[in-house]
Batch of 2 targets.
Target 1
Amino acid sequence: MRSMFSHPAILFLWIQSSSGWMHPKCQIYDSSEDLEHFPTWICSHIPHHAERYTAACQDVTAIEEDLLGLPPNINTLCISMTHGENRSMSLGFFSQFQDLESLHLPSGNSHLPYGNSHLPNLQYLHLDGLGSGCCDCHFGPHTFRDLVKLSHLTIWGYRLSAMAPDVFHGIPLLQSLNIIEPCVYDLSEILCRIMNIKSLIELKIEAPEIQSINQSNCSILITNESMKPVFNNLTFSDVSFGEITHIEEGALAWLQNLTRLTGAFSQEVLLDLPLSGIKQIQDFSCSGINVIDIESICNVVFLLSIKKLYLYNANTSSLSMSSVELCTGLEYMYLHGIFCSTPYLEWHFISSLKNLNQLTIAGLEDNRLDICSFQKQPIT
Ligand SMILES: *[C@@H]1O[C@H](CO)[C@@H](O)[C@H](O)[C@H]1NC(C)=O
Ligand SMILES: *[C@@H]1O[C@H](CO)[C@@H](O)[C@H](O)[C@H]1NC(C)=O
Ligand SMILES: *[C@@H]1O[C@H](CO)[C@@H](O)[C@H](O)[C@H]1NC(C)=O
Ligand SMILES: *[C@@H]1O[C@H](CO)[C@@H](O)[C@H](O)[C@H]1NC(C)=O
Ligand SMILES: *[C@@H]1O[C@H](CO)[C@@H](O)[C@H](O)[C@H]1NC(C)=O
Ligand SMILES: *[C@@H]1O[C@H](CO)[C@@H](O)[C@H](O)[C@H]1NC(C)=O
Ligand SMILES: *[C@@H]1O[C@H](CO)[C@@H](O)[C@H](O)[C@H]1NC(C)=O
């Protein structure tokens, strides 16, 4: 600490006011009271515990210069940049913050996102490439190996195909991996890079460009590994695709039990979903590319033991006691309907949904709300 104060350029930054450390680009929080004013939009994905030393740096234009004078013992560091900035930093730049537990970084030009800083306490790393569209950052093999405690990793807006096939190897404690907007069309670009992360408990994939769910052939990417993914401990999986036009048989067998699946399906492709190898989906959010009949979706609900259904573009005219019969396992249903052929909903269908706790129907006009016609049979 003494050596920090001996640097004249830094000294003025260390003036503490009643509201915390003064710093031109960073707000610094060191108590739970301070955190009430925390700018959560900068680093909403990073836990910022009370009693933790947190710095949130906004409008950063040059990482190395603008972070000058930060206390070396901060635990959480969030950086957001403006456009046209200098994102480069020298290798090992973050090594000066040895107590870092959480780091939220915009994408850099450097091949290694955090320099090659050895951060022995880092648990949360959020890499945000969005500022540069799809970041073509060439992360090499074992990029995160030096982060020995890393348990939560988010990669947002980085083109995964630009990274080495074994980019995620060597993170022994990784529990949670979020891959958001990986800018790839082929699911194997994702799967083959993550299939060996044995410790994963939570997996989130949001890949709107993927339209065709094909069998992954990982021997293209990884020649020397077993082809079978090994997610033995996965308890949370949330996968979101774009408009699905094709599903190959068995293509999702590596997921088996999904917590949430989101995608846009035509009625024809929807019926292929049970052949994808998925055994169970808890929450299914389905946008219909064309109008989806209730009987078709209920068939899928039954085969995949779906508990919560969000259906957009539903043919509400096809709602009836018999058409929802296979939906009887549903606990929650959201329907965004198309009300073209019949003006009134046939509310009696509800009595077939024995396990339903909550029903939301969107798109109804007030004068069509004829739920009173149902009152003879109480809703349980
Ligand atoms: C960007 O920052 C790095 C590290 O601080 C520096 O070496 C480099 O000269 C800067 N580049 C420009 C264009 O300012
Ligand atoms: C998936 O398979 C279909 C049909 O075989 C093919 O047309 C498509 O190009 C494949 N997509 C990818 C991303 O490999
Ligand atoms: C899976 O979870 C069990 C129980 O928590 C744990 O003992 C085991 O080490 C975990 N496996 C991996 C590969 O992390
Ligand atoms: C997978 O890709 C490799 C290399 O391109 C090829 O030799 C192999 O036949 C493919 N396997 C399947 C099942 O398509
Ligand atoms: C395959 O992996 C094993 C164990 O990781 C290693 O010993 C071997 O050298 C690898 N072979 C090739 C061809 O990369
Ligand atoms: C799927 O996961 C849920 C929640 O973890 C669990 O209740 C259910 O039994 C699992 N189903 C299968 C088939 O593994
Ligand atoms: C909606 O369902 C009704 C009743 O099953 C059917 O007559 C109609 O053709 C369907 N509309 C569309 C657009 O599929």
Target 2
Amino acid sequence: ENDSIFFRWLILLIAAINIEAKKKPSISKFLPVLNNSAILLTPSLASQCGFSMKIDHLGNAMIYTSLQNCFAQNVKDEAFTTAFQLRFHGSQLAEDEIYQMAETCHYTAWACREIICDHNYMEVSVKRAAPDNYVLPKNPIPEARKRPIDAGFRMTTITFFTPAEKVMKVIDAQRSGHGIANTPKRLVLRSPKTSPETYTQNVAGVPMLVVKTSTVFEKKWLVTRIDAAAACSVFFTADTITWYLPRRIDPLISFGQPKLLEVYMGIDGQRLDAAEIEARRYSLTVTDTYIISVIPIGAVGGYYKSHVQDGQYHISYTVEPMIEMFWTEDATHEGTRYKVFFPITTPLLPRPPQVTDRTIAAERVFKLELGYFCPDVALVNITFPSEVLSVTECRARGINVLEHMSPNSSYKVFTLEVPFTDPVVQQTSQEGATVYSLHLVFGLVVLDDFAPFSHAAYVQATLENIVPPSVSGGCDYQNFYVLVKYGTQGLNFQTAVGKQILTQSLAQQYGFAENGTHFSFIVDTTCHYAVELSSIKSRLDVTLRNLETNTIIKEFSVACNFISSLTECFPNGTMTALAVKLESVPGLNPSQLTLRDPTCGPTYSDERYAYFVFTGNSCGTTRKFLPNMMMYENEISLPDELGAKRASNSEEPEYELKVSCYYDINTTYAVAFQPRQRRNEPYAENAKGQLQVAMRLALDDSYSVFHRVEDYPITKYLQQPLYFEVELLTPASPEVSVELENCWATLDQDRTSRPRWNLIINGCANPVDQYQVIFHPVWTDARVQYPSHFKRFEVKMFAFAQDQEDLSRQLFVHCDVMICDARNPLGGVCNGQCMNPDNGNKGQRRAVSDEDKFNHVSLGPIRIS
Ligand SMILES: *[C@@H]1O[C@H](CO)[C@@H](O)[C@H](O)[C@H]1NC(C)=O
Ligand SMILES: *[C@@H]1O[C@H](CO)[C@@H](O)[C@H](O)[C@H]1NC(C)=O
Ligand SMILES: *[C@@H]1O[C@H](CO)[C@@H](O)[C@H](O)[C@H]1NC(C)=O
Ligand SMILES: *[C@@H]1O[C@H](CO)[C@@H](O)[C@H](O)[C@H]1NC(C)=O
Ligand SMILES: *[C@@H]1O[C@H](CO)[C@@H](O)[C@H](O)[C@H]1NC(C)=O
Ligand SMILES: *[C@@H]1O[C@H](CO)[C@@H](O)[C@H](O)[C@H]1NC(C)=O
């Protein structure tokens, strides 16, 4: 800069600081180049020759050099050139890097005296002029009467005032570290601040370091001398940095009051204008005694740096203000330009790291923030009770570690996210809650000198265990009773009864009652909402759904025998039978049912059942004699005229119930009660001939592993899917296929036993079953050569309700299997078509009369857990 007697280089270290290698790049050599040969600049040479260097917190190296440094090429005290060679340490593998640089500055505004106070040296440059008479002046002589000392004069001795006089030969002074040089017009004196030839003087309460000299020049018999002095101050108070610089620096002023013409404040050798000073919240005040500059700690222009002291994190703030003054002395009119650099670093301030816990337990992740650090701190590792993980290892296993800089780059924070599922998180159970805790120690390092420090933290989060709502219930002849217990989330679900949502009005109808932890309601079994009604049970399904996601939280079914006995045979010969409408025959009107004698209608009936009372010798009851027994039989069906009407619509009689009573001498009891769907149906016959077909239960829908025979009874929980497979065992051609005609469940091993719940009817899933059978296709694989020899279906485990309290504990599943020949199709089930009574395919079933085509398979018991 033209108005400055300094060169200033800012060298940006391009290489990023490499933490892993623990290698700190730095300028290893800093070599002024003189006549193409580089000279290593040692610290003592730097202070003798007018160089200083510092590396700031960002790693920038800043080199300051006096215009009149020992190595400058000086052209008439107007142009100054300095050349450098900078050598950077390479890594172990790479070569050192060398940069050449040179800078030329022009400066002509020389004051009589120019004083610089830099970090390591004091410099004074004075106009080389002496009074006319070449005698040692007792009193200062006005400038006008001074004359330049020409080049013929030779420096011989120098006197240092310490303050005692200390005379040295110039050459000895140079050897002891002082820089003493003549330029074309000036004398330059430079002394290291540590030199024994300096002394401290209290100037207006401010201790100042002073170097004061008188240099003797000789030319033949002529002798003259030039005085040169510099004084530098050291003083500040903490928290704000306040720098007092005496306005009148006595050691530099002979007498009288100097006239202060210019004062500038600057940072890092750069002048600042008033607006900049204000923007940075600095202040510069000139009083009668002092020039006072104030810099708040942390202000722009300085920087923080990290330190570790006794294992604790500390910071310091460093700023390098500059004051520049220009004054003239009344007596001599000689001007002095005084420039002082004053690097100030605060004492270490403890700055304990802070951990902010930003965890939201419901997110199941610990979120921590660790702050606040200077930018020169790095997180190296995290120590958990079980292991130490580097930051890279943390990231690799899903612990998210990030580094954040504040927007103005003044501080750094680290964030850490540890999922609750990570093994480093400890879990303990408390009443109804799980406590997650995390002990950790952050391992940090100050990058500059790799000083390690650590900070321990402990956090915990509590998550209430989520217990879903539960449903229980039962039924009697009249009603289903349902009790819903809320889970931990309270009443935040939707309830559906059957297919209907439990609205407020419906709730009212159902006698809904609520007490804060439970609600209950009662559904009449005769109510048309009753979901399932067959000959043996009625069933109510209750579904709880999540309001937000609409997913099912809980499904509950209660199924009851709401009629305990369907047929009774009294000792006096009276028989009673209850014919219950099957859901699979929705069009049936029970009041139209009769016994064999069409005049024998129900004693009473309603829309769901008909109750018949008859005797052994009425209503077409037949009688059979068996050994030690007598059997009475009758049938309940639609009378012929109604049946015929249906037949003309090519429909089958839909309902037939065979009622039998066996009587022995002493007791009577009911043994059979068989609703049948069709007349003449080959039904419930025992298997004939060899076993051709097998049924087994797979463990899952891959149908690769099966329960073995010796596993039975096997246990399943309610609603657990059961995977059935039926296989044709007898070797047969691929044209032969197995088809499932009917499949049903019973409580008893006897396939004809009651009650019975239909799963598959005529090859179709029972349409009234809420948990319908799912058919699974069969593909060829290692086990399956011909898919046509297999049938697979899935049904959810269910239970019969035997009485109001207990669900019966086991069931058996049976199937009627058809063996079909593709070359000679029989139609119906053999077509692979579902024979749903609603789809009009009924006639075809009639064609199958070949009972040999049937096989019967059974499986069980399957127990309910
Ligand atoms: C540098 O070179 C100049 C001329 O090129 C010469 O006068 C001077 O003595 C040399 N200095 C050194 C230290 O070699
Ligand atoms: C940087 O910003 C923080 C807040 O974001 C503030 O506290 C601090 O004083 C700022 N530093 C500087 C140097 O502006
Ligand atoms: C973890 O980092 C700290 C701080 O840098 C260091 O002192 C310690 O040795 C490191 N521990 C391991 C196991 O690397
Ligand atoms: C609410 O009703 C249920 C079932 O009747 C009962 O177990 C529970 O104790 C009741 N809770 C309160 C707070 O009354
Ligand atoms: C037969 O006994 C039953 C039950 O005891 C009774 O209800 C019925 O009336 C009796 N029938 C006759 C004809 O006595
Ligand atoms: C019927 O009762 C007689 C005697 O009262 C008894 O000997 C006979 O075993 C009983 N028959 C049956 C089938 O229980």
